[in-house]
Specification:
The structure holds two protein chains of two kinds. Chain A is mainly alpha-helical. Chain A has one domain (80-341). Chain A has 14 helices and no strands. In chain A, helix 3 (26-47) crosses helix 11, helix 5 (85-101) runs antiparallel to helix 7 (131-142) and helix 8 (146-177) crosses helix 9 (182-188). The termini of chain A are far apart. Chain B has a domain at 45-127: Alpha-Beta Plaits (2-Layer Sandwich), CATH 3.30.70.3270. Chain B is 28% helix and 23% strand. In chain B, strand 7 and strand 8 form a beta hairpin. The longest helix of chain B is centred in the N-terminal third of the chain and has 21 residues, at 2-22. Chain B is elongated and about 85 Å long. The termini of chain B are far apart. Classes of the chains: A mainly alpha, B alpha+beta. The A-B interface holds A 43, 45-51, 54, 296-297, 299-301 and B 10, 13-14, 17-18, 20-23, 25-27, 29.
Chain lengths: 345, 163
């Protein structure tokens, strides 16, 4: 009886379950984190005219990541003296969970989204993604180590100063689409992606979200040469592996948001028989291209100093985002017909 | 103008690194690919057994005293025995040999498990192990040439080279 009830429930919620467990949900994010780690090693090696992982697994060393994972699980998990053991071991897992929540609001097709968010999914995305730095701050603080606390403070500095321009730039898009819903925003880009009318906001958002996901040139919180490994200094074994994975999950969610806001999201010509599959293809293609562009920054640019980052975000990005917002608002108020020309509402 | 210079400073290095990322890497997959050095390269020293007259000049000129003249039963004179654990590959012995019996080639894979195996008896010296049997997985060799003062690498398939 109970089994029948469970099966019935599963049958009733099959689509939601697939979404949460498989495609935009847990499996997709974990596979992305693993694949991105491998791809980054290989790609950066080639950009430095090296070869990178080669032997493990015959084809381009793809099993190296699995081998590293097994190695990390086999290592001793060291808990430092005078820390809260429960929180110290809980927080890495919690950080992965909280940073992965944000993917729930990204539409992969008009009918393939975990939670539509009652028309405010853009705001919900920012709310969910902003949970991550709190966890990181606690994680660095609880480690009882000076490098960790410095790294944690840097996380909060960089995140706050980059969050504001990113949010203001996204508001320009919301005004243009006339909605906070990410599905409406994507539908508004059916004729022309917001990259072109919102070029200023595009640049601001791109730089700001690089800072939020701690990529080079904004990897100040984990600057190896200054503060050993930043907020993850005290972690070892599998906990360290989980915190390393934490690097890639915000990258995944924020890049998906970037693609959704400015590059037309899942929009694209029909190439498969099914509209949904075609939408998946287009959003994943755009996503991969943006990832390829972002990962290469690591071997091109030097790291910005803390004061340079703050000057860039507060002195240039925030006014530019405001300017973008004001121009968009004026056009939206006085010349709403202009938006009609490019297909937006 | 400063804005243009600023943008150039961002875009130009990015393009250069991206070109590197899609071009061929400089490192080679060593046990499978190997650099072949130029003709004058001073590597492993071998002996042409029938040319040696046993004069012992090589033994006397060797700065590290790596060469010892040893008697062989049934031969009229002694032959050089080289201890590669001492050899510094200066190849003075090759230069001094009046008959051209000693010669050096481009093989540098001389590592062994026991130290005694580094002492090469004249018979072993006169039968140098070919590169293919040392590096069994070797698929490609890369020759290094100097053209117009610049190093250039040429990819050759090992099998084609043998033919």
């Amino acid at each position: 009886m109970l089994i029948d009830e469970i099966l019935g429930w599963i049958k009733l919620n099959l689509k939601d379950l697939i979404q949460i467990v498989l495609f935009p949900g847990i499996a997709f994010i974990l596979i992305f984190a693993v694949a991105a780690t491998w791809f980054e090693r290989k790609y950066l090696a080639h950009s430095m005219l090296r070869i990178g992982p080669l032997h493990t697994g015959r084809v381009a060393g793809w099993l190296q990541i699995i081998a590293d994972f097994i190695k990390l699980t086999g290592k001793e998990v060291i808990t430092p003296r005078n820390v809260n053991v429960f929180l110290f071991n809980l927080l890495p897992v919690l950080s992965v969970c909280t940073s992965a929540i944000a993917v729930a609001f990204i539409p992969f097709s008009s009918d393939w989204i975990i939670y539509e968010g009652n028309g405010i999914s853009l705001l919900l995305f920012f709310a969910a993604a902003s949970l991550t730095p709190y966890i990181t701050l606690m994680l660095g603080w609880i480690s009882n180590n000076k490098y960790s606390i410095i790294g944690a403070m840097r996380v909060s500095y960089v995140y706050i100063s980059a969050e504001i321009p990113a949010f203001l730039a996204a508001m320009g898009v919301a005004i243009m689409a006339g909605s906070f819903s990410l599905i409406d925003i994507v539908e508004a880009q059916s004729r022309i992606p917001f990259l072109i009318p919102q070029i200023l906001g595009f640049i601001v958002f791109f730089i700001a979200f690089l800072a939020e996901v701690e990529r080079v040139p904004f990897d100040i919180p984990v600057a190896e040469q200054e503060i050993v490994a930043g907020w993850r200094t005290e972690y070892s074994g599998i906990n360290f592996g989980v915190t390393m994975m934490m690097d890639y999950i915000p990258l995944c969610t924020w890049t998906l948001l970037f693609v959704t806001l400015y590059l037309g999201g899942y929009q694209g010509p029909l190439i498969f028989a099914s509209q949904t599959l075609s939408n998946f293809f287009w959003i994943l293609l755009k996503f991969s291209l943006v990832i390829v562009v972002i990962l290469l920054f690591r071997s091109v640019f030097p790291r910005l100093r803390m004061d340079q980052t703050l000057r860039l975000t507060w002195k240039y990005l925030t006014p530019a985002a405001f300017l973008n917002l004001i121009i968009t608002a004026i056009i939206a108020y006085y010349y709403p017909d202009l938006f009609g020309l490019i297909g937006a509402s | 103008m400063s804005v243009i210079r600023f943008l150039r400073g961002i875009i130009k290095p990015y393009i250069i690194v991206f070109k590197h990322a899609i071009s061929k890497p400089h490192t080679i997959k060593y046990p499978y690919e190997r650099l072949m050095f130029s003709d004058g390269y001073r590597g492993r020293i071998s002996l042409r057994f029938e040319k040696c007259i046993g004069c012992g000049l090589c033994s006397r000129t060797c700065p590290n005293r790596a060469i010892e003249m040893v008697e062989i039963e049934g031969e009229k004179h002694s032959f050089p025995q080289i201890n590669f654990g001492r050899c510094s590959f200066c190849c003075l012995c090759v230069d001094v040999c009046p008959r051209g019996a000693l010669f050096s080639d481009e093989v540098v894979e001389l590592s062994v498990i026991k130290r005694d195996d580094l002492i090469y008896h004249p018979y072993k010296l006169s039968n140098p192990q070919p590169l293919e049997s040392i590096l069994k997985d070797l698929k490609k060799t890369i020759t290094v040439q100097i053209e117009d003062g610049r190093l250039s690498y040429t990819l050759l398939r090992r099998r084609e080279e043998n033919v």
